[in-house]
Amino acid sequence: MDALFASGHIVDALLLLVALEALGLILWRRRSGWPLPFLCNLTSGAALMLALRAAMTGAHWTAIAGCLAVSGLAHGTEMVLRLGGGTTNASVRLDSHT
């Protein structure tokens, strides 16, 4: 178990699950509209996991900072889409089915 964490492969397994979740979400919502806010949320979480993996494996600080920046941008985009950055077809369709 120590090797799984030290190598960062535990994060790889979690990222695979996130990718499968994104694929399932895209396929499920394909008919009713692009699930952009949810995909932004998944992107934000995946970027945080990549930052964690980078830190666990001793990557340069710029790699960690880059992952955190991507996470912040994805999160900000999600907040704009969900909380009133205008209504887009994706957010309207998404909200009408929840």
Please, could you describe this protein's structure?
With 98 residues, this protein is an all-alpha fold. The chain has one domain. It contains five helices and no strands. Helix 2 runs antiparallel to helix 3 (36-56) and helix 3 (36-56) runs antiparallel to helix 4. The N and C termini lie far apart (39 Å). The relative contact order is 0.16. The model is unreliable at 91-98 (pLDDT under 50).
List keywords for this structure.
single chain; 98 residues; mainly alpha; disordered C terminus
What is the number of domains?
A: 1
Give the DSSP E fraction (strand runs of 2 or more residues): under 5%
Question: Based on CA inertia axes, which overall geometry fits?
Answer: flat
As a percent range, the share of helical residues equals: over 70%
